[in-house]
Amino acid sequence: MQEVLPNNSDNTNFREISIFDSIICELESSLSILSGKVQSHRPNPSIKINDEYLLSEEEKLLVSRLMRINHVGEICAQALYRGQAFACKDKNIKDLFISASIEEIDHLVWCRQRIRELDGRTSILGPFWYISSFLLGLIASFYGSSVNLGFMSETEKQVEAHLEKHLNLIPHFDSKSRSILLQMQEDEIHHKEVADNAGADDLSYFSKISMKIMSKFMTKLTYWL
Ligand SMILES: [Fe+2]
Ligand SMILES: [Fe+2]
């Protein structure tokens, strides 16, 4: 590994990052993500929109539940990409996963902010989704870079299609939620292109179907919990 950590106060000696350092970094990162302590890098696309139409209580409940699903999706994206990066041997591919996960932080923060505006709540199952997605990413990384990237490409493709569904479900006058989902959709398309250009493999039919079943399970459960 090329990364180094200072091991004394004057920074004159350095040591390589050990597996224990990496695990501690991952724990710290997961706690920041799950506790909502992370900050977005770009402004929330809905910030300048003044909704003149007030959503009814039923509409607010529906949209907050949909945004909760999207928030969990972003928790999964964080965990997945960090898991994929964790055991990735190729430095360039590893950096690609890390930068994708950093961009996904914006989505995570925007969804959380919108949920709060709608007086909704985030999922109580966040830690469960984070751990399962991290393990899934870790497993994908053992199949080599092209499969690892193929997993990212397929994930982004399915997320983009899922966002399209939500854009059709939320009230058309909810411009705030729409602006967030539209920017997320644009970013997910870009992430897919990045993975494809880096050499993503097309995953097997079985893998794609399994991913769809898992995401369906997640969306159904998160709608209520
Ligand atoms: Fe995202
Ligand atoms: Fe993405």
TrEMBL record:
Gene3D superfamilies: 1.20.1260.10
Native source organism of the sequence: Candidatus Kinetoplastidibacterium galati TCC219
Transmembrane segments: 124-144
Top-level taxon: Bacteria
Similarity field: Belongs to the COQ7 family.
Any one Gene Ontology BP term: ubiquinone biosynthetic process
Entry protein name: 3-demethoxyubiquinol 3-hydroxylase
Residues the entry annotates as binding Fe cation 2: 104, 156, 188, 191
One Gene Ontology MF term: metal ion binding
Subcellular location: Cell membrane
